[in-house]
Write a structure and sequence with these properties.
Layout (H helix, E strand, L loop, with lengths): L1 H69 L6 H49 L6 H5 L2 H19 L10 H20 L1 H12 L2 H14 L1
Helix pairs in contact: 2-4, 2-7, 4-5
GO cellular component, one term: cytoplasm
Protein name: ARH38 factor
Organism: Vireo altiloquus (Black-whiskered vireo)
Length: 217
């Protein structure tokens, strides 16, 4: 009995050892695979992590780009509109001043012609029935005052920035002389018109007037 029992116990121990060896062998075969899988997973995670950081960096740059531009002060639509209105008003003001001065120049030219080609020749003829001063009133004083006004306008605008051109001061400065001069001219206007109508009925006087007008052409 004892030998038989020992044989049976030995076989059990041998089976136990065999199972342990098989288990260890399987473990050795499977452990590299597990390690390989784990390593591959780490590399995959690493690649994903780098990709995520790159994508995040790109998105951050895109978000920061508009902010970089925003450091430059931008005007609002209302400010742009106000600036445009201001430019148009200034351009209109410059145009009005230019036209005003040109009108005054043209007026002075007409007065020059009237004095040189009409009044002076009629005075030189010394026609007894022709009242030159009554017909033309104080037109020579009007000419002088207009030349003064133009001179002041040119002084206020020459080499002066449009926004700094003070035209109103010119008219305030010459306001008194203008009123005094044109009061006389306007006061005699109706009388001068009546006188001209009477001269046109006289053929001799009418011819003198016609000669002066022809010289103007």
């Amino acid at each position: 009995d004892c030998p038989g029992k020992e044989g049976t116990g030995g076989r059990k121990r041998n089976l136990t050892l065999l199972r342990n060896k098989l288990y260890m062998g399987q473990r050795r075969r499977t452990e590299p695979m597990v390690e390989s899988t784990s390593t591959t997973g780490d590399h995959g995670n690493l690649r994903r992590s780098q990709s995520d950081r790159t994508e995040y960096s790109q998105k951050l740059q895109e978000k920061m780009a508009p902010q970089a531009v925003s450091f430059t002060p931008a005007t609002s639509p209302q400010e742009d509109e106000e600036e445009e209105v201001s430019r148009r008003m200034m351009a209109r003001r410059v145009k009005i001043i230019t036209e005003l001065m040109q009108t005054e120049k043209d007026y002075i030219t007409d007065l020059d012609l009237c004095i040189k080609e009409v009044i002076q020749p009629l005075r030189n003829k010394q026609i007894a029935r022709f009242d030159v001063d009554g017909l033309f009133s104080n037109i020579e004083l009007v000419h002088h005052l207009s030349a003064k006004l133009l001179s002041l306008l040119e002084e206020a605008t020459t080499d002066v920035e449009p926004a700094m051109q003070v035209i109103g001061e010119v008219f305030l400065q010459i306001k008194g002389p203008l009123e005094d001069t044109y009061k006389i001219y306007c006061y005699h206007h109706d009388d001068a018109h009546t006188m001209l109508e009477s001269y046109e009925k006289d053929e001799e006087l009418k011819q003198h007037l016609r000669d002066c007008v022809q010289s103007l052409k």
